[in-house]
């Protein structure tokens, strides 16, 4: 029968055999799949695995620096590339959800291609593709690898896409990937992370994106997610996040009338993201979270909770 330990032994041996002493490039996203793929490859080929972790400026608060540090602590040969300005610049003024996704996909490919050219003589591109990605190629979903797939016909093939592809998790389901990760000694918190979309906060800021809006949403999201952890609710939820709505509403603060932003919180239960139910979070938790957000995040005066299931409502609002 299948065991994570046996999978690790067999796969590491196969990777050594297949790759030899050639160099491999891998895009880390901070998510479970790319992280497990990286540790597995690192175990097989060590420093010949060159990981690239791109900050698109649309990650959660402090995520880039914290996750980068964590990767370094795991001994990975990783380069963090802060391309925030480039992404936000190209997104400026754009409100259409699909166009935002396309811009992010394109800039990611440009940045990744530039970075991969710096790894001289690389022969392989590793991806954290898992079995459900293979069978469904879930249209818009998935991490960097999916982003790459849906954009590879734009303006000719970038050089890194001409590399040989290695996908060590290709035959695994998500729960098996987590078990492999645990067997490799990867931090439980990393393995238990909620899914996070490749375009990040861009599709949770309804309408156009500005650095100010990103900063507001990062604060709101951090209060919500930290709260879920503190209240021991994080692991009971499949995915959670906050949406910044493109409306202002009236409020009062002391004697003053305010006219500020509204955020929506969303937490869902799901097994694969294809269907989802909203989570019945405790009222006390929602009350505390709402107060914290309104008191601590300037520019937000109203919090609502999304009680829509998928279908018909999608998990993301864009
Ligand atoms: P929806 O909103 O379609 O989301 O119900 C289902 C799952 O997919 C994620 N998602 C994306 N992931 N790129 C991604 O990498 C995307 O463009 C994208 N859109 C949605 C979403 O976070 C949820 O887990």
Automatic annotation (TrEMBL):
Q: Which residues bind ATP?
A: 29-35
Q: A single GO molecular function, which one?
A: ATP binding
> What residue ranges carry the coiled-coil annotation?
none
On whether S-adenosyl-L-methionine is a keyword of this UniProt record, the answer is no
Q: What is its EC number?
A: 6.3.5.2
Pathway it belongs to?
Answer: Purine metabolism; GMP biosynthesis; GMP from XMP (L-Gln route): step 1/1
Catalytic activity reported? XMP + L-glutamine + ATP + H2O = GMP + L-glutamate + AMP + diphosphate + 2 H(+)
> Keywords assigned by UniProt?
ATP-binding, Glutamine amidotransferase, GMP biosynthesis, Ligase, Nucleotide-binding, Purine biosynthesis
Domain GMPS ATP-PPase residue range list: 2-193
Q: Mind naming one GO cellular-component term on file for this protein?
A: cytosol
Q: How does it assemble?
A: Homodimer.
This chain's function reads: Catalyzes the synthesis of GMP from XMP.
The protein depicted here goes by the name GMP synthase [glutamine-hydrolyzing]
Protein source organism: Maribacter orientalis
Q: What residues of the intact protein does this structure contain?
A: 193 to 510 of 510
